[in-house]
Amino acid sequence: MAVLGIESSAHTFGVGISYKGKILANAKEMYKITDKGMIPSRVAEFHANNAREVIQRAVSGSGIPLSEIEAISYTKGPGLGPCLRIGQLAAMTLSEMLSVPLYPVNHAIGHIQITTHLSGFKDPLAVYVSGGNSQILGITERRFRHYSVYGETLDIGVGNMIDNFARAAKLNPAWGSTVARIAENGHYMQMPYTVKGMDFTFTGLLTNAVKALSSHKVEDVAYSLQETAFSMIAEASERALLLSGKRGVILCGGVAQSKRLQEILTAMSKSHGVGFYTAPNEYNADNGAMIAYVGELMHRGGAKPGHGDYAVEQRYRIDGVDLKWL
Ligand code: FE2
């Protein structure tokens, strides 16, 4: 059973092909973010211009002819509306053309499920950290089978927080990886640390760090910002791990590429005798393979999306998705 999945929720237009749980292709094109950030209509135009070529590259790389694709999936949300619509339209066209079923996929479930699959863990705690998201989740059976959010950011995502700091510090490129590099030579200074139960907030930390730039070395501020933010995530994750009784921890999403965050969560998991796993970077960055993989799970699990389920949703919450197909 081969499923082609399309991801287009933000700057990446990605197309993956999953066959019996094996990823046969994971092609992508990424919009280059300028200092003006992402203008959704521009990114959508980029996706529209690249869709055909990326689809062709994924199909030819997979070794499976398009005629043998048995289902199509795409990211329904969350994400930027105009960008999501390009992926949706491409997926609808392919599904119509090939007369195969179409599956709308939650982006966060894509990241979590591909990582869970690669980890080999059964039912782990998921720490999902990206630009716009920071959540700690696990599958529960309360009312229906779904991901429960044990804890999450009450304001901005950790990735956007670090990127905002990088821009304020005039780092080039203004990304988390640049902050991480600079932080290697830094020393710790106290910063606001806000964990409320299993939730946390980042804006106080960001404001403080940006202010500190005028009186402290950028290396020290970068190091302290990173240590504080990641420790907050680790404290909340530890509490969620103990409360949920899960026996493994996976880290996924764009910020999961951070070596320092991986180190901290590895130590936390080890201290409780549970396994820790994060996927190779190509699956932590946005990609089509994770959408194809979830499409395959839905297809195999007998998911039957109704006519009203195909619309894109910019704020498509993970905890409302019924996982009866899983
Ligand atoms: Fe993502």
Characterize this entry briefly.
With 326 residues, the protein is of the alpha/beta class. The chain contains ten helices and twelve strands. It binds fe (ii) ion.
Describe this entry's structure for a reader.
This protein has two domains: 2-110 and 283-320, Nucleotidyltransferase, domain 5, CATH 3.30.420.40; 121-282, 2-Layer Sandwich (Nucleotidyltransferase, domain 5). The two termini are 16 Å apart. The chain has ten helices and twelve strands. It is an alpha/beta fold. The model has no long low-confidence stretch (mean pLDDT 96). Helices cover 43% and strands 21% of the residues. It binds fe (ii) ion. Fe (ii) ion binds at residues 107, 111, 130, 253-254, 286.
Question: What is the fold's blueprint, element by element?
Answer:
Elements: E1 2-7, E2 12-19, E3 22-30, H1 40-62, E4 71-77, H2 81-98, E5 102-106, H3 107-119, E6 125-129, E7 134-140, E8 146-152, H4 158-168, H5 176-183, E9 195-196, E10 199-200, H6 203-212, H7 218-244, E11 248-252, H8 259-271, E12 275-278, H9 281-284, H10 288-300
Parallel strand pairs: 1-4, 4-5, 6-11, 11-12
Antiparallel strand pairs: 1-2, 2-3, 6-7, 7-8, 9-10
Helix pairs in contact: 1-2, 3-10, 4-6, 5-7, 6-7, 7-8
The structure holds fe (ii) ion (FE2).
Residues 107, 111, 130, 253-254, 286 line the site of fe (ii) ion.
